[in-house]
Design brief:
The longest helix has 19 residues. Helices cover 77% and strands 0% of the residues. The chain is mainly α.
Length: 464
């Protein structure tokens, strides 16, 4: 019996000893080391949590767990840990920098900048804090301050490709493409395996009209990181611009397979299908773009163009109306709708749309020209024409854009107003401009017929 009592006491003592020792028998220092060496943020969080259970007053542990939470995008937990760290040690520069990163993730740029500034105040040689504050200034579109900070980061530690990449991104937004390319070249030299170095240089080259070089950069970015299909999206746009429609469609297919709610890519793939003559596929993609983003005007305008080309003017009017409803600044849709109304011989509705386009942008050469052409050449009843107003708007269009087509409109306006000598002289000038531009003989002949018409004191009427 005494043996059993002794065994029970020994067992109880062993149990109490076990409870006093951390799980797996790890010391606080061992948990900290595990957290520091772990590569998985989940493991880091677990190890630092064990460490802080044993060392609840250590500001470094909270700072490090803050970083792990941020990596997992658990921003509220990250913020709480960074707050504890700076409360425990108010002169800990790293914690201010890391809390600034959390604020940056949350879009709270002013708070981020304040923390980065405090971090820099505590450590004037803290290059990463300058870089991060530069990124925050960039996000706030305070480009001069951003450039100053990113340049200082590079001065303090020029061996970090991240700093050159960030300054390169900034220079893209500053439209200083040579400087952007120079920084991104440097980033690529230091870190040739980083896809985003090539992606951002591709953007700089694209905007600098270096299309082939940009395609090469996007292609290299895809090789290095094939899972980011936004690289394909950008390359697809350039293929579209180069009229390489099959290649564009292939890139958009890959991107839309990964990001099925990208309305712009549906619209752009539709453009490629349309240019290949695959009109039904184009119409379907334009419809999908509008479905994904009901506020997106462009696919409705594009569907309107197709229906207008098919002479399905009633459907075209519906689509142009939807485009204008979604974007009241989309004057092109109003002018195209006017053309559809005109084709349907709905003269008053056509005139009102041409007027509406002009009123929305009185300094638009195209809007003035379209209204002038309608007022001068409308084939409907006399009430749809007005020679004096046609001259007024045609003169304004030519003053804004001196071109052969606008001179052609001005000549027709003079003719409608009965100013035959002005009409002949202006039309002859339009023909001369076409010859100088080496325009097609068919177009020159068309303009010449109006010279002969105006010499006979006959106005031009557009074919209905």
């Amino acid at each position: 019996m005494r043996r059993l009592r002794w065994a029970a006491l020994c067992g109880l003592a062993f149990l109490l000893w076990m409870l006093s020792v951390p799980a797996w028998g790890q010391t606080a220092e061992e948990w900290f080391r595990r957290g520091r060496e772990a590569t998985s943020p989940d493991d880091q969080i677990r190890y630092y949590t064990e460490y802080l259970r044993l060392r609840p007053d250590d500001y470094v542990g909270y700072n490090n767990r803050c970083i792990a939470y941020r990596t997992k995008k658990l921003t509220d937990l990250a913020l709480a840990d960074c707050n504890r760290s700076v409360q425990m040690k108010s002169d800990f520069a790293l914690a201010y920098n890391n809390r600034g990163n959390v604020y940056l993730d949350k879009g709270q740029f002013d708070l981020a900048i304040a923390d980065y500034s405090r971090s820099i105040q505590l450590d004037r040689n803290y290059a990463l804090a300058y870089n991060n504050r530069g990124v925050a200034y960039h996000d706030k579109k305070m480009h001069d301050l951003a450039l100053s900070d990113l340049t200082e980061a590079i001065r303090l530690d020029g061996g970090k490709p991240l700093y050159h990449r960030n300054r390169g991104r900034l220079q893209i937004d500053r439209k200083n493409y040579p400087a952007a390319i120079e920084d991104l070249n440097r980033a690529i030299q230091m870190e040739p395996g980083e896809a985003y170095n090539f992606y951002h240089r591709g953007r700089a080259r694209e905007l600098a009209k270096m299309t082939d070089e940009a395609i090469q950069d996007y292609t290299q970015a895809i090789r290095l990181n094939p899972s980011d299909t936004y690289f394909n999206r950008n390359r697809g746009y350039l293929y579209l611009d180069k009229e390489l429609y099959d290649l564009a469609i292939a890139d958009y297919n890959k991107h839309l397979g990964a990001v099925p709610d990208d309305h712009v890519s549906f619209n752009n793939r539709a453009v490629a299908y349309e240019n290949k003559g695959q009109i039904d596929l184009a119409l379907a993609d334009y419809a999908k773009a509008a479905q994904v983003n009901p506020k997106y005007a462009l696919p409705h305008r594009n569907r309107g163009r197709i229906f207008q080309g098919r002479k399905q003017y009633d459907l075209a009017v519906i689509e142009y109306t939807k485009a204008f409803e979604r974007d009241p600044k989309d004057i092109s849709s109003v002018r195209w709708r006017a053309q559809s109304y005109k084709a349907m011989k709905r003269w008053e509705e056509a005139r009102l749309d041409f007027e509406r386009a002009y009123q929305a942008d009185p300094n638009s050469a195209a809007a003035n020209n379209s209204l002038a052409w309608f007022l001068a050449t409308c084939p409907g009843p006399a009430s749809c024409r007005n020679g004096k107003r046609a001259v007024e708007h045609a003169l304004k269009a030519v003053g804004l854009d001196y071109s052969a087509s606008y001179m052609d409109t001005l000549a027709a306006a003079y003719a409608e107003d009965g100013r035959w000598e002005d009409a002949v002289r202006t039309q002859e000038q339009a023909v001369a401009m076409l010859r100088q531009q080496k325009a097609s003989e068919k177009r020159i002949a068309d303009y010449q017929t109006r010279v002969d018409l105006f010499k006979k004191k006959k106005p031009h009427r557009e074919a209905d």
